[in-house]
Predict the 3D structure of the following.
Amino acid sequence: MKNRISFFLMGCFFAVTVFSQPVDSEVEDNVIFEKYTTFIEPFRSKPKELILEKTAGFFLDKPYVAGTLDKNDTERLVINLREFDCVTFVETVIALANTAASDDLSFGNFASNLKQIRYRDGVIDGYDSRLHYISDWADNNVKKKILSAISRQLGGVIETKSIDFMTSHRSAYNALKTDDAMLERIRNIEDEINARKGFYYLPKEKITSKAAEIPHMAMIAFTTSVKGLDTTHTGFAYKKNGKLTFIHASSAKNKVVIDEKTLSDYCKVQKSCTGIMVMPLL
């Protein structure tokens, strides 16, 4: 609590007034943000692709830590620039890049952009307002014109399986273990997802032939054959010296890395991986 109070005193009052829920962060996150603003300043007028690349690269070697959004009893905006899982890395990089590309490079604007990305229609209203399923996350962020979906145009196919992993594995989620009402709200969200009749993805055997058409720094999500689940991992497509790989918060390497494998080879060795969703930032 002492750190959190100090953090707010260090210039985040705007963020507090923007949200009905308090921001959950630490003093160090404000320090890292200030370092980021200095780092990104020379690139702010450059194309969004380069701002994304520089922003993602700023966090190379930051540790991988899972579950950072689920430590509070009530849902609140968690800002953590010290450590990431694969989704919080993607969300943070996009929010920071959008902030850097705007006229307002402030912590408050970054917090607002992060909230807009992470929550359904940008509104925090309980655990179920967070966009847990990546296909749902993608659909909502395309509607908000933060991303575009190009998997279909790349020659992708549609996945129509039923999405119900969270309610089928409620014991894996602290917020669902004993809360029947919340379980039902998540079930309703799954029903809404399934009512869309599927989502498009590029099969992994097509990645090599389509590599030239996958934009550098497009957000990617790895689709899966796991029953009831849409994706298992996220990152950004990364092109260097003619090689298509990706930058991500890796649980295997325990840090943010530019992967050694090509995107195609990575998918090939992941038995449950069926392909990728491809979503460039607008």
Q: What stands out?
A: The mean pLDDT is 93. The chain has eleven helices and seven strands. The radius of gyration is 18 Å.
